[in-house]
Structures are given as C-alpha cells and as structure tokens.
Design a protein that fits this description.
The protein is α/β, with parallel strands linked by helices. 30% of the residues lie in helices and 22% in strands. Belongs to the methyltransferase superfamily. Arsenite methyltransferase family.
C-alpha cells in the first residue's frame, strides 16, 4: 500500500536534507541511485553538455536529475522562470544566464539545507538575478500569473499528489506561459511492489505517472500543446522523458455595447464548475437539517452568477458520469477519494478542493472585485431527495 501523502513528503524531505551534505539529491546512496540495475548511469550531471555547464559545474555536481530541462525550455531574455525542487541550484544558475539581467529566476525547495547550499552556490557564481524560496510544490508561495516558465528536473514524481502540483503550476504561470520538465514516466506494467516501495519513491521511480496519466493531468489542468518525449530508460519499469506544455492565452474579453459620449468597457465571463459530494439534492439545501455553510455557498454561487459567471454544479449522487468524464476531477478522486470534494474549477483550472469557499474567495478565484459579504441564507427545500418523482434516486435521499 502506498504511504500517506504526509509520510511521503517527510520521507522525501529527510532524504533531500541529508543529500545537501552529500553528492546525491534523490537519496543517500549516490552510486546506487545514479545507476540502473545493470550499473549504467541514468541520473546525474553527466546528462548536461560539459561546454554549456561551464562555471556552474559545481552547483550541478550533486544533481541526480533525469534530464536537462534548460535545454528544451527555450528561455528568453527578460523572462521570469520558476525551478521546482531547485536543489543545489544548478538549473537556476543556467537559467539566470539565459534570461539575463532583465530576467529573474526563482528556485523553490522545501529543505533548508538545500536552500542554504543553493544560495552559497549562487554567491560563488556571482549571479544576482536569482532568488531561492522555501515551500511545497503543492502550495507554491508565489502570486497567480507571476512567471513565464516553470521548469523542474525529476521532481514531479516525488510529489504525492501530482494533480495539485500541476494545478499550482497553471496558477502561477501567466497566460501563454509554458512548462518544461525532465521527469520519469512509468510503464503501464509497473508492479504494485515497486509502486509501494518508499526507497523507489525517493529514488524517483515509484511515484512516476504513466504517459497516459501525465497527458490527462496536464490536459485536466488547462495545458495544451502537450509533448512527452521519452529519452532513456532509468528502470525496468520506467523511462526518463522531456515534458513540455503551454498554458493558453486568455482572450475572452468582449466589448460592452456603448452609445456616444460613453467610454467602452470590457467584461470577462468565467465558467465556474463545482463538483459536489453526494447530497440529497443539487444544492444540498434540503431536508430537516441544513448545513449553514452549504446554504451560504449556494447563495454565494447565485451572487457569482449575477456578476456574469456561468456556474454549474454537479452532484456525485446524481451525475457520477460527469466526475469520471473530467480528467482532473477523476484524478483527484482517485488520489483523495470523496474527501477531495467539493472541487471548484474556474475556466477548467483547479481553484479549491475539500472546502466550501466564501464569497470573497469565489470572487477572487473568478477575477472579480471584492464583493459585499454574503448574508442571504436560502430556505431549506422539501425534506427528502430533490430528484424528480419516480426517478431512480427518489428513495433514500440519493
């Protein structure tokens, strides 16, 4: 059985913290982890072009990445780049030289030991357009729409919930932004024993998605132009691959009809999709005991619709097929079960999971101005299931 997300995170954190003082970033046995079962090197700095690495060789010496994301990220001067799981900072330094003094590169890592090492390497290299921040892949401490490119080197597979990470990547990317990952793609026949092996997880194998799962995860979080290109085999049941995708530009602004002597304005319509847990009716505001949080949520969703948003709610008890049909929702249910509900998507992107958002939070997610606090509470609907009389869900209140 696969370990709980918090156990996986702590195990990975401990291994990376120890690695800051060794030559490994995927575990405490560099030779074993850098090589496959036949003793062939499959992870590490040898994948980088020696001429390109140059003065950043020291920062890359401890790398046990599975590829070279900077080689396919197509970085340009002036861009802002985020490196997930930046480790000792090698890819950050390469990126910093690519984007130049007008650009900026941010390295994100969860271990204080790795951050200290990366900062020291940046100081030694004399690179000033970089910043290293501490945080988790599932909760990136950066504003929405704040970076142009997100890169990572064999890091996504270490996260317990890849769907949340991809949603966070989509959130921090500006419209039209892109990702360039080097990561491990699992074969479809990876056995259960390998998947449950924590040593294989921290060794960048067990947590890998299959090609189909990675494709669905990227598409489910709004990415297009998905390209997954395998490069070399790193395990009996896994291959390294280059993964690239683009976040579409938003061009949904529509002019509002105007008359003479008025200034044209624009309005933006957003689609808000709510995937609810199984409830007695479409809103949950029914029966003898109504949860006030549900009543407020329904009221706030109605307010959101009045502001021009298209709001759609789906009840797991009444529309289970809709949950399966959405790759992002299906993946979240597969990893978190019904505790992941309710799920709120805005224009197809994940905005919340497992909680009822407030009116202010809904407005922020939809890109609206700060609202007046919602005070309207809807009256409960008739006791019992709200499905049409004679339907299959009438008995037992769904």
């Amino acid at each position: 059985m696969t370990s709980a997300p918090e156990d996986i995170r702590e195990t990975v954190r401990a291994r990376y913290a120890a690695a800051a003082g060794s030559t490994s970033c995927c575990g405490g046995a560099p030779v074993d982890l850098a090589n496959d079962a036949d003793g062939t090197a499959v992870f590490g700095s040898f994948l980088y072009d020696v001429a390109e690495v140059g003065q950043d060789a020291a920062a890359l010496a401890g790398s046990l990445g599975c590829g070279v994301p900077t080689a396919v990220a197509d970085l340009h001067a002036g861009e802002t780049v985020l490196d997930l799981g930046s480790g000792s900072g090698g890819d950050v330094l390469i990126s910093a030289r690519r984007v130049g003094p007008t650009g900026r590169v941010i390295g994100l890592d969860m271990t204080t030991e790795m951050l200290a090492l990366a900062r020291a390497n940046a100081t030694t290299a004399g690179v000033s357009n970089v910043e290293f921040v501490q945080g988790y892949l599932e909760d990136i401490p950066l504003p929405t729409d704040s970076v142009d490119v997100v890169i990572s080197n064999c890091v996504l597979n270490l996260a317990a919930d890849k769907t949340i990470v991809l949603a966070e990547v989509a959130r921090v990317l500006r419209p039209g932004g892109r990702l360039a990952f080097s990561d491990v793609i699992a074969d479809g026949d990876m056995d259960a024993t390998t998947k449950a092996d924590m040593a294989a997880w921290t060794g960048c194998i067990a947590g890998a998605l299959t090609l189909a799962e990675m494709t669905a995860g990227l598409a489910g979080t709004g990415f297009t132009d998905v390209e997954i290109r395998p490069t070399h085999r790193v395990h009996t049941h896994a291959r390294a691959a280059i993964i690239r995708a683009t976040l579409p530009s938003t061009t949904e602004e529509t002019p509002v009809a105007t008359t003479e002597n008025t200034t044209p304005e624009t309005t933006t319509s957003v689609a808000v999709d709510v995937y609810d847990p199984a409830m007695c009716c479409s809103t949950g505001v029914c029966g003898p005991s109504v949860d006030p949080a549900l009543a407020r949520f329904e009221s706030d969703l109605r307010w959101l619709g009045e502001q021009g948003a298209t709001v759609t709610r789906r009840n797991l008890a009444q529309e289970p097929g809709a949950f399966v049909a959405n790759p992002l929702v299906a993946a979240m249910l597969a990893s978190g079960g019904e505790e992941a509900l309710p799920i709120v998507l805005v224009d197809g992107k994940l905005r919340s999971s497992g909680t009822w958002l407030s009116r202010t939070e809904l407005a922020t997610a939809a890109g609206l101005s700060a609202p007046v606090a919602g005070v309207e509470l809807l009256a409960p609907q008739a006791e019992g299931c709200c499905a049409p009389t004679g339907s299959a869900t009438t008995d037992g209140c769904c």
